[in-house]
């Protein structure tokens, strides 16, 4: 159900920052999906097919990250030095984490086992990358919020921006918690550092529900305020 | 012969979705055409040249898929969440199927033989990818049809959109039929699961002929309706 | 010295066809320049450096081809089915010829010798690719010329378009001649099939000089025609 | 602190030259960051992680170069033949130096030792690439300065352009000096040819400080000139 008062897009055309970022995202997507060797025999082809679920998951994660980028620039169209720097860091982290991502999810689906010590390090690498990316988004959306007067954000748009800040900050917290658990849990419980990411769903749902209720209350108030007495 | 009343393009400029998709399509094309090793000796060069027909065919298939994408966004310029999700799935399937495509057509031209069991699996992989891509296009064009009022499609434009839905749905049916044949035919007839794709030509021709006749009838009626009495 | 009456650009913004083609050209450029292995030792680094002249030449050739593409779409901004098909063929040939190009020029600078039989084949591969690319450009520019009324080309613009057709057709002739020489010359003169490409400079210079003189005459006439009596 | 009278952007939309350059820059960035092999074992993953500082530094250098490109085309939007040629050379140097850059910084962080003779050559390669890139930028910005009347640059914008010319010329000087030192210093002091790049910080700071003071004086004068008496 679309919002009664949707977020207005401030971007009129694709900026060079967006186009440049898309090249990097597109390359990252491609590196996720394709292996570097064209299968030459039937068994290599079948093996490549077994990579499907890991590929699909990595692809979905990258597109999730891309979508937050897409939304940010469509909505706010900010191109100051601050966002340029944050965006550069974001591209760096995205590119740097492509191969670890592929390694980790490829390992899960291949039932590749790791000792507890290795698992701690792997959870740390994944958690740091995850937290870094969403920390950068938290900073970007918080930056937009600070400039809301300049961007002419209305009350609902400020509310939506705040919702994004809360959601991304929660992702940062979950990534950080996973790293902490990876180093404090006993070896037999180490898997919990991974299962904690399943908290994302309920957490996003809760934030979406609470902030969504408030939004609808604000919309209702706006409608009644602008209606004839 | 161009149409008397052509389909009006609703897109004014290249959207970020189109640009992003093109990066992925461009990568896929490139991966199809180039091998990963620069030939270092004369015989390697000659071997690379023998890849020409397989490369050309894969290239043509990918450009066919790209063209449906190009037409969709030029004509309808829809950028809602539904098309975003379908488009993401499309990019995933395209990237995922690049190497199998190259493998399969490379095999045909190299007269590489497969046992009947392997052939069944290869036809299944190809058929599923083929059907998936055109199912996604069927959904996209059907979505445009449902939103025809909002998009201000005139009668002819609705007709053209319906033509595309029929054509893509037929492609889905052919891909699915190939998979079914691959598992039901006896080993010595297994090749029919491949030859069935030659039905695409006549099928598209028939749909194009029937729907084209109707279009011309509609155009004639429009001209007579708007002519002075 | 810029023209008194320059060619007017009909393109207002970068079309999706141009953007898509640039991705393919950009990929081709990158494949030309980078090798697939990051040098790991000092001697590998030095070896990579010796690739400089071959890289520079291939890069220049690709950029020359790109520039003809750039000029075509900037000037005429034609996006009909014909140019779409020709452009697709062009991208295919460009991608397909990247590695042979790199192989051939890499061989020249490395003083890699070929027997006369191999040389015939190599000249044929290069000549066919060269002639194909410029044949496609000849067709594109000729197509623009045929549509000059529709595109509202003035007399000078038609003249400039004709100049391009002559130049590209000459490139086709030189490439074809090289292939013919490669198969008719005796082994000891086989190198002439390569040296013939040095004709490009004088040929382009002559066409440029003749057509440039005519253009200036046309400009002078236009100035005198529009001057007060 | 933003300038009271900022540089006005002359570019309205992303030109094809910028889009094409971004594809090449995006490839270069990606080649810097990713290795060509997805890590397959835990120890390969850890080894890839140790590449982090070298990757980060190369990434930062490339983005610094990209940013000068971005600023140039946003500000001046010049697309004449001269800038086209310089830009082509720039893309060539950027692509050609990606792997040496990765090699050199990878070596530093891996504490890979080189004999003095090899070090001289490595400093030469890096210095020539560094000087070439900034020489091309010096030429580009100097070209904009020469065309300041045509571009309608105001006094402050001419001043800012001059600041860029000074800064880039200083980078050229530092790169050249490093090459000279690499061939004149005794073996035990050869490292100085590398440390000289730390001069960039103070040099840029000094130019920025001097030119910034002058700019503020010019701004103050403009404000007082335009204020009511």
In helices, the fraction of residues of chain A equals: over 70%
Order of helices and strands of chain A: HHHHHHHHH
Mean pLDDT of chain A: 87
Amino-to-carboxy terminus distance of chain A = 28 Å
Low-confidence regions of chain A: none
Coarse shape of chain A: globular
**In DSSP terms, counting alpha (H) and pi (I) runs of 4 or more, how many helices of chain A?**
9
Query: In what range is the share of β-strand residues of chain A?
Result: under 5%
Number-wise, the strands of chain A total 0
Radius of gyration based on Cα positions of chain A: 21 Å
Largest interface: A-B, 34 and 30 residues
Main beta-sheet strand count, sense and barrel state of chain A? none
Oligomer category? homotetramer
Structural class of chain A: mainly alpha
Descriptive account of the structure:
Chain A has 229 residues and is an all-alpha fold. Chain A is 77% helix and 0% strand. Chain A contains nine helices and no strands. In chain A, helix 1 runs parallel beside helix 4 (81-109), helix 3 (52-76) runs parallel beside helix 5 and helix 4 runs antiparallel to helix 5 (116-146). The mean pLDDT of chain A is 87.
């Amino acid at each position: 159900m679309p919002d009664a008062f949707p977020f207005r897009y401030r971007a009129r055309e694709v900026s060079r920052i967006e186009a440049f970022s898309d090249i990097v995202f597109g390359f990252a997507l491609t590196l996720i999906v394709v292996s570097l060797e064209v299968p030459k025999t039937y068994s290599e082809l079948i093996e490549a097919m077994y990579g499907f679920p890991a590929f699909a998951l990595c692809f979905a994660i990258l597109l999730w990250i891309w979508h937050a980028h897409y939304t940010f620039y469509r909505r706010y169209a900010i191109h100051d030095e601050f966002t340029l720097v944050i965006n550069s860091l974001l591209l760096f982290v995205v590119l740097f984490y492509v191969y670890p991502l592929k390694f980790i999810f490829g390992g899960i689906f291949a039932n590749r086992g790791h000792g507890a010590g290795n698992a701690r390090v792997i959870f740390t690498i994944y958690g740091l990358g995850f937290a870094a990316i969403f920390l950068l988004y938290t900073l970007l959306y918080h930056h937009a919020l600070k400039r809301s007067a300049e961007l002419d954000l209305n009350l609902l748009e400020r509310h939506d921006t705040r919702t994004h800040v809360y959601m991304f900050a929660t992702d940062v917290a979950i990534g950080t918690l996973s790293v902490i658990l990876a180093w404090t849990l006993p070896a037999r419980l180490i898997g919990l550092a991974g299962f904690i990411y399943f908290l994302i769903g309920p957490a996003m749902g809760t934030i979406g529900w609470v902030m969504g209720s408030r939004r609808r209350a604000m919309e209702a108030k706006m409608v009644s305020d602008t209606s004839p007495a």
